[in-house]
Amino acid sequence: MLKKEIYSFVWVLLITTSCGSLNQAKLLRSYENLTANSSALDTTSTNITANRDGMGRQATLLSAFYGLDDALPRPANKSIGKGAGGADGMPVIFSHEIDPRTLQPGDFRITTASGKNGEIDWVTLAPADDKGEFRTVLFAGHYGSIKDQPVKFEVIGNVLSIDGKLNFKGTNIDITPLEDGPTMIWAEVVPKEDWDLGKKATALVWGGSSGAPEGTKQVVRVTWAGGVTKPGGEEINDVERLLYKVTVQQEDGSKIEVTPFAIADLGDGDNNHELCLDVTGTPLSASFPAGYLTDPREDLNPATTINIPSHK
Q1: Of 76, 133, 206, 280, which one has the fewest beta carbons inside 10 Å?
Q2: Residue 208, pLDDT score
Q3: Would strands 172-174 and 150-155 be described as parallel, antiparallel, or unpaired?
Q4: Which domain of life is it from (predicted)?
């Protein structure tokens, strides 16, 4: 059984019955839906061909996670597009943040194990749309099944990085099977100006995450392959916080393992957690043990560790 619809893996902008209140209606109107146009063609004209940034990091795909087979919840018909309810759902994570204006379904191709080309109908960044999160793109459509799973994801059109300097055209990646659990795919140190100190999540289940608490000395953002919760769909709390471990290198070169004293970026239904640390030093890696978080199919996570680059 899928997790309850108020937190589906699509992280879909779900419109629940509680949205009848005036306050939530105002929030709903103020939320900017970052669903890209649904053009079947590549509409981005550019002469940008570079695929490495100034630090030498290549523009590539980090993960394509086949998360739902004909199971996006019915409210997706309103929040993504007519017909999205009951479609497949797949988040894809890029090495760099993406310019949403360059995203169209026609930029991509999904191939199944039998060699068929899947149908991609919608692409959206939401709700992983806080500053610094524009690397996760959700794909909805009909591009496979549990019997003929999608196996290859390709960028065949012009998809540019948020700074307009890199083009992802020509990149591809093998797709994670439906039955696999989620892992951490990316990690980075969050700039202080993006901590949103003391900010509370919005009343909606998307559209505004919680900020870091006072006392934070640095923040590490970890990005999972897909949306993760406790088994059954509840948001994580101190139980899961205590399981996260971050390796930090101190000024004298020694390394310590610390536990985040708080988790931010909660309450918005995306695939990011912000690990708030009360120690200084250089974060090197983050880890989380197996068996505590699930995707919407209730597939448990394996043990997962991710290195933290010294630059974005």
Answers
A1: 280
A2: 64
A3: antiparallel
A4: Bacteria
Say whether both 158 and 230 belong to one domain. Answer: no
Is residue 282 in some structural domain? yes
Spatial neighbors of 163 by CB under 8 A, at least 6 apart, are: none
Sequence-distant (6+) residues with CB within 8 A of 146 are: 69, 178
- pTM given for the model: 0.88
Q: Which contacts qualify for 1-4: CB closer than 8 Å, 24 or more apart?
A: 1/298, 2/68, 2/71, 2/73, 2/296, 2/297, 3/229, 3/232, 3/233, 3/294, 3/296, 3/298, 4/232, 4/233
Is the residue at 245 inside a domain? Answer: yes
Q: Which of 150, 174, 198 is the last residue of a domain?
A: 174
- Backbone dihedral angles phi then psi of residue 46, each to the nearest 5 degrees: -155, 155
pLDDT at position 92 over 60:
yes
The answer on 239 and 156 residing in a single domain is no
Q: Residue 67: pLDDT above 50?
A: yes
Structural domains of the chain, count: 2
Coarse DSSP helix, strand, coil percentages of the chain, rounded to the nearest 5 percent: 10, 30, 60
Cα angle value 268/97/231 (rounded, 5°): 35
Sign of CA dihedral 73, 77, 80, 86: positive
Q: Nearest CA to 15 among 89, 138, 23, 24? A: 24
**What is the Cα–Cα distance from 79 to 122, expressed in whole angstroms?**
11
| Residue 263 lies in domain | 184-307
CB 66 within 8 A of CB 50: no
